[in-house]
Amino acid sequence: MCRTGHSGFPNEDSRMTTAGILVLGRRRPGFDPEWASHIVGRVTEQLRSAAFVALRPAAPIVDEATLEVAVVECQSKGVDTLVVLQPTMSDGNLAVALDRLWTGPLVLWATPERPDGSMISSCSLVGTHVFASTLRQLRHPFELVYGMPGLSETAAQLHAAVRLAVAAQRLRRSKVGLVGSHAPGFVNMASDPFELRQQLGPQLRQFGLHEFQDLVQSVAAAEVDKDLATFRELGIPLLDMTESDLPLASRYYLAMKHLFITEGIDALAVRCWPECPSMLGQWPYVGMARLATEEFPIACEGDVDGAVCCLAGALLEFGQGYLSDWLEHDRSTITLWHGGNACLGLCEAVGAEFGPRAACHFNNRKPGVLDANLKAGVPITLFRFWRCDGEYRLMVREASTIQPRRLLRGTNGLAELPGTDVAALFEELCHAGMPHHVAVFGGQHAATLRRLARLLNVRVMA
Fold it and tell me: Which domains does the chain have, with CATH numbers?
């Protein structure tokens, strides 16, 4: 996983995610205090084995003043999100106070009633419902968890909700780099730094193509030699690239990695043609594929929103991913093809007949791409964030890879979408303005991405 950047994740490994745990009490006694104490004890026990650091403020929270003290303490200790519990129903006015005190997404955790006896023990779900309804009317994003602390299902719900809340928050404070602009003619992928910042949150940082060219050429020879040894350890055979082409491929890789590390960016989009092969004599795709394999969010053809897609996948811990063209389709499949920039983890194994091979581009015969087929039989998710009619939108579909029907140079895969009329979907997406790149990640993540879209106030189109 990539480790150095601006937003804190996925590019930083200095600490785990930290969640502030706000247990909201009552100024006046009510309901069943014994049950509330039991619930808090089970919460404490569950959090001992959580996948994140749980920080509970020392002082009890019973009103707006004590809530503010608790939130300030959490902020001073750098928590990433707040988990809000009501072991017994709290004051609904505190939802409005939370909106004022905390700008990021919240996680609301409701717990069940005591299963025995005739009395109402907590009204925790009712209190959480009050908070949820209030926060929605305030347009404050939140995630919901409902379950008995200590159960594996509840722990999984909580982990997913915290991961989503933190991903949305980190996306909003991230920085995306753009080398040059979009590729010639691809005006459908033109970036708007103001809409990007206002709607999704990332800051756009632009670098000139000549700056990038100078950076590539300035990489020290000793660094290149060291990286060549690392590349050779991958065992990727040469198809029609030669040994003399490899130093420049390493320079591209090191220069792009430098932008992540030194400039503190979290995702990178590069205008890879026509300037890169014409100015430097080589495509940057071998380097891009290596970075994608290391889970650096990177996009070709200056596709800023595509880079944001890759960043979202990294923040949500989807693993390796890359951008592909939607090359062609029939009623049930999509051909996923691009010039040769796919992450190794989604490709056939190195050394296999259609595994990664360092090659020359099919079009202009310049070196610097990886030819490879995607592995068949792998569940994948295809998705895309894009901007149209003044709003950001999301397309997401789950699929599985099958054996390609024909050999294509570059990255070649065939995705099957059972139960989806792909031709009708394509027409719908064209009318919704979706550009021609989709993010490809292993695993089935549609539900998670739809929840992320809700947190970001992004409309799900398909």
Answer: 18-172 (3.40.50.10940), 175-460 (3.40.275.10)
